[in-house]
Amino acid sequence: MWFFVRDPVRDFPFHLSPEPAEGSPPGPWALHRGRKKATGSPVSIFVYDVKPGAEEQTQVAKAAFKRLKTLRHPNILAFIDGLETDKCVHVVTEAVTPLGVHLRTRAEAGGPKELELSWGLHQIVKALSFLVNDCSLVHNNVCMAAVFVDRAGEWKLGGLDYMYSAQGNGGAPPCKGIPELEQYDPPELADSSGRAVRETWSADMWRLGCLIWEVFNGPLPRATALRNPGKIPKSLVPHYCELVGANPKMRPNPARFLQNCRAPGGFMNNRFVETNLFLEEIQIKEPAEKQKFFQELSKSLDSFPEDFCRHKVLPQLLTAFEFGNAGAVVLTPLFKVGKFLSAEEYQQKIIPVVVKMFSSTDRAMRIRLLQQMEQFIQYLDEPTVNTQIFPHVVHGFLDTNPAIREQTVKSMLLLAPKLNEANLNVELMKHFARLQAKDEQGPIRCNTTVCLGKIGSYLSASTRHRVLTSAFSRATKDPFAPSRVAGVLGFAATHNLYSMNDCAHKILPVLCGLTVDPEKSVRDQAFKAIRSFLSKLESVSEDPTQLAEVEKDVHAVSSPGMGGAAASWAGWAVTGVSSLTSKLIRAHPTVAAGEPNVSQRPTPEGLPAPAPTPAPPTPVTSGHWEAQEEGKDTAEDSGAADRWDDEDWGSLEQEAESVLAQQDNWSTGGQASRAGQTSNPDHKSPESDWSSWEAEGSWEQGWQEPSPQEPPPEGTQLTSEYNWGGPEPSDKGDPFADLLARREVGTQPRPDSWGDDNWGDDGLETESRQAKAELARKKREERRREMEAKRAEKKAAKGPMKLGTRKLD
After folding, report:
1. Where is the composition biased (Acidic residues) (predicted)?
2. Which of 210, 385, 485, 695 is the most exposed place for a label (fewest CB within 10 A)?
3. How far is CA 161 from CA 59, 63, 142, 564, in A?
4. Best CA proximity match to 395, nearest among 423, 364, 431, 419
5. What pLDDT is recorded for position 577?
6. CA-to-CA distance for 493 and 309, rounded, in angstroms?
């Protein structure tokens, strides 16, 4: 029945490379690369071919096969599978490279780092300690050829061919018969008398000293070269000398050698070794220890080898997130290690974790994801963004934490190119309208305007026509000066998206109103934009044939030129706006509700000065504002007014800093008042009554007021009661002057007002309407009291009527 015979080599579940790998160790084994047939994962295969007349070497190979199969330790070469026949012996291990080849490769790339060598030697010594102290075995073959390196840079001890028992029950040590291996034997083995007193580990520790010398100095030419340490680090030299001492009794035990090298100032006392030791025991560490470790890990990753980060740190980070409670602390080191991965590996290992993290309700994790989105956004495809990430990100627009809302707004710069029609033109615009109209934080309203200007090119033509002009016009009415600057710059940055009619009838009237703005930076940007729009209109007026060319992007589906600019703006928004917003928020101190803070803005030249207002009790000096400014540069190029493509939106931060620098004590009170209102815990969140974009948050509604109107001061006289042209003289004086004086002294300005020097009559009209309403209420109350008094008087005079009686006249 010969047809039932199977060839074990052909059925071996591993593919074997035909040629041995480079740097195969000396001895009976040949190292081949291989792959598992089922999964394709790489492995290393040690092959021994049985030869006639080499029975002793065959027994050594079979003994090594047995030893490697039974010994399991993290620092010993990991056995996967094996095959033993009459013709050959195959030993399959994890994919490794001989140490000599690894060191040559690292030398070509600039040489291995001392940290890497310290951890590698630590692993070999730990493996020797396991064999000697736990297994009572003598390795008998410690040398460069017996050490291998896996893909993570971990050193593994192999070469178990000549191992024997330290207790002497296994017979005499096997004979090597290979000169390349016998040169590492200690000198006491040459003493045939056997009078030398030695420990069981003495020979292996001598060979360890030879290995250390070769790691730092190259191949060992002869035993006498061990007297010169060469390039061995100074912190390791004293311990190395103990290993190669002539007295075998004085050579330290592997465990004591590790302890000496781990002492303060020792060669193995460094951050890299500590990190590896912690990772080996991470499963039994306390949660607090894990949190601290991951927080400090990102600082050290830059000095660690790339292979170590990819193949050892990354799996531990993924495991800690998947099965542990590490939370947001793993994000920073995770994305740092992700830089070493290829695009395919990133998709397989990092992206599934990122998608799962976005569904978390942990605020710390959410804000770190938003802050570091720039590192992984290029690996996300559009379906994943629209179906699994964007629905979770939009919840940040409704968050009560301003930092979450700010980071959510800025993340739209990166997500907008990947959003579909519904998410970009409907859902996102609804949230932007709400933020710009109702958010109590001025910097967030400013950032919303900035972001809208940067993603405007991705919007559809109908959405651009409906949204951009209204949104930027609303921003120019914002009480927060940088928001007004952002509105002007928004018009300038999206100039090619407006028709000539819109420029003349919608944009220029808005910009002209800003020429009398209280802030000089707003006026300067307004004049600059007006000149640019006028030059554009004038050029079309001179040559009407240019109209089609000028308006080519108005009805276009997308603007490639503007898309490229948006990509460059995204980098600025993630870095520059963050610092801008943090400065502005820090510059707004919280003010108690009872503290009167009255703001007064400088009057532009040519306008009447407002009535003087009392200074706040505890003014915040302008030095506080200036302390938050870094790298202020307010220089402007007036000649670049009509160069639209060179318009730099990045100057918004500089403009905002210029605004802060120009403000003096007169403005700190108002700013503090606004900050005091926004920090009030009783303030109702504007998100609670949001129903629909068209109904409540549309761009056309203009600036909406979140705070209720204040009642007028008591005793205010209405304009209808004032004698405007009567013959009799009035000794009451000017009612408007009295009204203004009372308002300045007795009331606190509204947080969203522009100050007492408002550029219109809105404040006075509001006071008049409030006074009329109060007067009507008082009249109704007085009439009700009169009616009740009459009824009471009538009852008291006649008494109650009796049933059946007739009323007498």
Report:
1. 644-656, 754-765
2. 695
3. 9, 7, 11, 64
4. 431
5. 41
6. 43
Mean pLDDT by 10 residues, the chain (809 residues): 58 84 76 90 91 84 90 92 88 93 87 88 95 90 91 91 79 70 81 65 91 92 88 93 88 93 92 91 86 87 88 87 75 88 88 88 86 88 91 91 92 92 92 91 92 90 90 92 92 89 92 92 92 91 88 70 40 38 42 35 39 36 35 37 39 44 40 39 38 41 43 47 44 42 41 36 54 85 89 73 50
Q: What is the pLDDT of residue 450?
A: 93
- Residue 518 · residue 755 · CB < 8 Å: yes
Spell out the domains of the chain, with CATH numbers in brackets: 14-97 (3.30.200.20), 98-271 (1.10.510.10)
Angle 652-662/520-542 helices, nearest 10 degrees? 140
Q: In the structure encoding, which two tokens stand for residue 597, read together?
A: 């803070």
* pLDDT reported for residue 771: 78
Token reading at 348: 């397989």
What number of CA atoms fall less than 13 Å from residue 273's CA on the CB side?
A: 21
Predicted confidence at residue 392, as pLDDT, reads: 92
Per DSSP, the three-state class of 32 is: strand
**What pLDDT is attached to residue 662?**
45
Is there a contact between 662 and 519 (Cβ–Cβ < 8 Å)? Answer: yes
What is 229-297 written as a DSSP string? -TT--TTTHHHHHHHT-S-GGGSPPHHHHHHHHTSTT-TT-SHHHHHHHHHHTGGGS-HHHHHHHHHHH
Q: How much is the pLDDT for 430?
A: 93
Name which of 66, 63, 62 is nearest 85 in CA terms: 62
Residue 713 structure tokens: 């001061």
Burial of 463 per CB tally in 10 Å (0-12, 13-18, 19+): middle
Q: How would you class 629 by CB atoms within 10 Å of its CB: exposed for 0-12, middle for 13-18, buried for 19 or more?
A: middle
Question: Distance between CA 371 and CA 382 in Å, rounded?
Answer: 20
Joined together, the tokens standing for residue 73 give 């330790």
pLDDT in the model for residue 327: 72
Return the DSSP state at 166: T
DSSP annotation of 43: E
Half-sphere exposure of 740 (CA within 13 A, CB side): 15
Using left for φ > 0, alpha for ψ between -120 and 50, and beta otherwise, residue 230 falls in left
Burial (CB count <10 Å: 0-12, 13-18, 19+), residue 628: middle
Buried b (16+ CB within 10 A) or exposed e, 642-651: eeeeebebeb
Residue type at 697? G
